[in-house]
Amino acid sequence: MQRLEHTRDAGAKNPVGAYHGPRVNPVAYFIQAWFGVALGVGLVFLTLGRVKRAGTEYTVFGAMALAVALFELATARVYTTGAPEALRWECARVCAAAAFGALSLDLARLLGARTRFFTRATLAGYLYAAVAVGAIAAGWALSPPAVLRRFAVGSWLFVWQENTLRPAGAAVLLGLPVLSGVASLGYASLVRAGRPWCRPIAGAYGAVVLAALWDVATGIAEAPAPYLSEHVLLAFVSVTAYALLERLLDELSARTAELRALDGVLTAVRQTLAEREHLALVGELSAIVAHEVRNPLAVIRNATSSLQKPDRPANERLLLFSIIDEECDRLNRLVTDLLTLARPISPQLRMVDIPELLDRSLEPARRADTEVDVRYDLSGEEPLYCDAQLLRHALENLIENAVQAMGTRGTLVVTVTRKAHPEGSDREFAVIDSGEGMNTEVRNNARRPFFTTRTSGTGLGLAIVERIVTAHNGALDIESKRGRGTTVRVRIPEQRPSVPDPALLA
Question: What is the pTM of this model?
Answer without folding.
Answer: 0.48
